[in-house]
């Protein structure tokens, strides 16, 4: 068996902390999160949390920055080496949908941040968000220049895509936490078509294409 090095052990501890913190912040938000609960879910002493990461504020910032960085990389890779702005937009939507489905914690965390006017959003996370918007703006502008898309607002298109997917992702995550989910949650979740992401893709393209 390979002997674990101190660095590898440290990295594994940091990953456990980050995963536990992500789940706690998604469950109760920044204000409701307690380092004691994060330590319990990470199965380690609270003192180790402060040693590896620092304060709750630092940990929260790391959670958001980590998620948004990964999202940025995925979205950029999704549209690279594609010439058609229409196909770029389709791939952008698909990668957003896939990312939210694979990272269900991001939706409740970012929805709470939006509701609190980005009160705890780190500058680095906001800069990453701006780069994602610039990526979307470029493909929309290219489509407009080529006569494919109507003139539009990148941030409006972004939220056209993200909002329904975030709501659906949050509902699905909440349902997964129950053995017997409340009827109201089941009703809303069942009201979404099974192919919601595909339908959203078509809605957005129909709205933008000339």
From TrEMBL:
Residues 34-53 bind DNA. PROSITE patterns: HTH_TETR_2. One of its GO terms (molecular function) is DNA binding. Keywords: DNA-binding. The keyword Lipid biosynthesis does not apply. Residues 11-71 form the HTH tetR-type domain. It holds the Pfam family TetR_N. It comes from the Bacteria. InterPro entries: Homeodomain-like_sf, HTH-type_TetR-like_transc_reg, HTH_TetR, NicS_C, Tet_transcr_reg_TetR-rel_C_sf. Transmembrane segments: none annotated. The keyword Cell membrane does not apply. This is Acyl-CoA dehydrogenase domain protein. It comes from Candidatus Moduliflexus flocculans.
